[in-house]
Design goal:
Length: 622
């Protein structure tokens, strides 16, 4: 690191509260359906179960993601933390699994938000009754519009998000305050609720126990934290922020997370109180007017159809925009990981084919769940909970490595709570893990197929020689340059002496030709692309060696000889010996571990990288 780091590169940044509105498209929009789902799941205990949810939010999810913001300040989130903590193929596979659940989270956000927007449209008294029964078709229309916008080219407008979120929250304040006023001025409401509650649960401790058991069903109220850290690059930092130490950005993100959690917690508690006390239990059931739209029901009942229609319009707008935000998040998330693993098909680099695929998946999920908000809640909650649980585990490991024993214990307890919550949700509503498993299977299959098809790409972003290596190339550039591919072993004089004798015999090389050894040390074979650094060494005062570290031996050697050709204008020769063993086994070793039958694979990489045989470096095998 330089003594005086340069300022971080300029981004299109905004104040933290403006970016909070961008995350609020996902987080705050859940008020459109969360109170109804909570009432349906917990019944009369909805306020108490919601209090448990708020406690988990403020004492669990919030400190976890404040730590994630500190550890991963460039928007990569907890997935990147776990990728660094779990190296090699274990880390890659684990990231692919998390990407499957993240895809579940984002895609279900699209379909659930569209379905709830449909519910607010259909249940509005000013909308023709003929639309009832066509919820699937209306939801598909919302998804078509969403896909069409992205096909035209979508740019998230924070200004639009600020207007939508501010309007929506203000309308919710009006509805909640009106509901609380109704509760306060009608004492019988509280008394009726209390009598019904005590008749069902006579023991207060049992009420708490039931609330603890039920609250995982309310996990939708935890959505938005992963999005909160994903948008960190949009947050304006301090003038002296650097990419390595963006302290202002981290501080702004912590303010964003804390403020959003406090706002949402207040709305969760108050909305659960007014909806549970003022709406008959039967109206929460599927097909009834409060199902998926409890606050909108109160808006129409207590503030009139005009205000209710305005509330419906605002809810439809923020829910649709939440789907747009989810689509944008997925389009930004997958390219951050899969291309670096070599696990993205070529068409995935373009936005439009990916949008078509995601829209098609959203169509399928809408059809499977019949555009039912409640039915999709389990799948959404599973995606949210898995990501939060993985974040809790990641920060626990980070705290342990930093030897912060207090935080390690605290994050361990939080991780245990979220593990319980996730497992309880999966057992109660297995649809989420089933859909997540489908996404995981699809991502892993497509990813490994893509990596298999791209196995013979050059896969080196840049080649950098040190001064000794440059001198070796300059000395040999005036005559025929011959490289010997050598797998380093003891690196003693006998190894190099025997290798030269063998190569001269196998390839009938004249004694006067200069020979340079090329050795590759395999680092992380699960990496796909990397920079190739070439270091020149003189061993035992006579043997010249070009030493490299790469994820695969063949790709490194191919990049080396192509770079030498481009620098010197001559086609170098590289000599190999055949490897004993089954060629299929050797290919699998190359695919998974970067080694194997090096000679034919190096030649194939060169053939793909240089289609003109007259310019291709020579490959000799003996």
């Amino acid at each position: 690191m330089a003594p005086h780091p340069e300022p971080a590169a300029a981004h299109s940044t905004n104040s933290w509260w403006q970016v909070m509105c961008l995350t609020g498209l996902d987080y705050f929009s859940t008020l459109g359906y969360q109170p109804a789902i909570a009432a349906l799941a917990a019944g009369l205990l909805s306020p108490l179960a919601t209090l448990v949810l708020v406690l988990v939010t403020l004492a669990g999810a919030l400190p976890v993601y404040r730590r994630v913001a500190r550890e991963s300040p460039h928007g990569m989130g907890s997935i990147a933390m776990l990728e660094q903590l779990l190296p090699f193929w274990r880390g890659k596979l684990f990231v692919l699994v998390l990407l499957g659940f993240a895809a579940t989270d984002f895609v279900i956000t699209m379909t659930l938000s569209a379905a709830d927007a449909t519910a607010h449209v259909v249940e509005n008294p000013h909308v023709p009754q003929a639309l009832h029964g066509h919820e699937v078709a209306i939801t598909l229309v919302f998804l078509v519009i969403l896909g069409a916008v992205f096909l035209k080219g979508f740019r998230e407008a924070i200004g639009v998000a600020v207007v939508l979120v501010a309007t929506y929250l203000l309308l919710n304040v009006v509805v909640v305050v009106a509901g609380l006023w109704e509760v306060v001025t009608s004492p019988h409401v509280v008394l009726d609720w209390g009598r019904a509650l005590t008749s069902q649960h006579t023991d207060p401790l049992m009420m708490v126990a039931v609330a603890l058991v039920v609250f995982p069903k309310l996990a939708l109220g935890l959505s938005g934290f992963e999005t909160g850290v994903a948008v960190m690059p949009h947050i304006k930092g301090d003038r002296d922020d650097t990419e390595e130490q963006p302290h202002g950005r981290i501080r702004g993100t912590k303010k964003l997370l804390t403020t959003a959690a406090l706002i949402m917690s207040a709305f969760l508690v108050t909305s659960s109180i007014v909806t549970t006390l003022l709406i008959p239990a039967k109206d929460f059931q599927p097909g009834q007017p409060a199902n998926g739209r409890a606050l909108a029901y109160l808006a129409h009942e207590h503030l009139g159809s005009v205000f209710g229609s305005v509330y419906d319009l605002s809810t439809v707008a923020i829910l649709w925009f939440a789907g747009a935000s989810a689509m944008a998040g997925l389009l930004n998330l997958l390219p951050r990981y899969l291309p670096r693993y070599g696990m993205a098909p070529h068409w995935a680099r373009a936005t439009r084919p990916t949008v078509l695929v995601l829209t098609g998946v959203a169509f399928l999920i809408t059809w499977i769940f019949d555009a039912d908000v409640t039915a999709q809640g389990g799948a959404y909650a599973t995606g949210v909970l898995v990501l939060i649980t993985s974040a809790a585990v990641a920060v626990m490991i980070a705290a342990r490595r930093a030897r912060e024993h207090g935080w390690t214990v605290a994050f361990g307890i939080i991780a245990a709570v979220f593990v319980y919550t996730t497992l309880a949700n999966v057992v109660e509503r297995p649809d989420g893990v089933k859909i997540g498993a489908c996404f995981i299977a699809a991502i892993i299959v497509v990813s490994f197929l893509s990596r298999f098809l791209r196995a013979f790409e050059l896969r080196v972003t840049d080649v950098v020689f040190d001064e000794t290596a440059k001198r070796f190339v300059r000395d040999c550039a005036r005559r025929r340059m011959r490289l010997i591919a050598n797998e380093p072993d003891a690196r003693d004089p006998a190894e190099y002496r025997d290798k030269i004798r063998q190569m001269r015999e196998d390839h009938d090389l004249p004694d006067e030709d200069d020979l340079i050894f090329a050795e590759v040390v395999v680092g992380d074979p699960s990496d796909f692309e990397s920079e190739l650094r070439v270091r020149g060494e003189v061993l035992h005062n006579r043997y010249r060696v070009l030493r490299m570290e790469s994820s695969t031996v063949p790709n490194a050697l191919a990049a080396l000889v192509l770079h030498i050709r481009d620098q010197t204008g001559t086609r170098p020769h590289i000599h190999f010996e055949w490897t004993e063993g089954n060629p299929v086994t050797h290919f699998l070793r190359f695919f998974l571990f970067g080694v194997g039958e090096v000679a034919p694979v190096t030649r194939e990489v060169l053939r793909e990288a240089e289609p003109d045989p007259s310019r291709r470096p020579h490959v000799h095998v003996g």
